[in-house]
Amino acid sequence: MISLIIDDQLVTVEEGTTIIDAAKSVGINIPNLCYLKGVNAIGACRICLVEVRGNGTLTPACMTEVARGMVVRTTTPEVIKTRRIVLELILSDHPRECLTCIRNGSCELQKLAEEFGVKEIPFEGEKTAFPMDTSSPAIQRDPRKCTHCRRCVSVCANIQTVQALGPQNRGFTSLIAPAYNEPLANMECVQCGQCSLVCPTAAIQEKDDTDQVWAALADQQKHVIVQT
User: Which end of the chain is more exposed for a tag (fewer CB within 10 A), N or C?
Assistant: First the structure.
């Protein structure tokens, strides 16, 4: 077992435990956008940065294993300031359409922006403008809302063993999509919806057929049957 200090609390966990899980074991929440225990721990979002005594820089809590005698601070002024800047950078290339977004109220990015008091986005410039992919009968993709957390990539590859999604292109044009940017309907996607379940935003969502239901109910030429 390994003992360390997190925010003045003595924590004892098994060797190999990450800082983020060690903190969670004593009720300390370290915010993040990409971490999924046992599935995705790549430090992509940089929201989980913490201060470790003796390190010359902030450390990603999701990728760093605990060490004996380690002293961790999760809410220092530098940590909070850095997390806020990271959030502002992510939001600078994110559509500002929360009021009409299907994830309004349940979006992890939105909740973090509220938690860290992000009121304005100081960074302006060109935004990515990828088209939506509605080719699949069950899932729709909106790459504009993607935070590149790669949760969907990991769950599709490591849990479902399908590998329908992955990083494409490089630099400003990089995105998470099927190989060669093909429509999702052309891939070996099994329509399981696990990618939409772990997505922190509305970049991947189940298709909403509510309008078709209302149209069917209003059609006097149809006999509508509801099965529950």
Answer: C
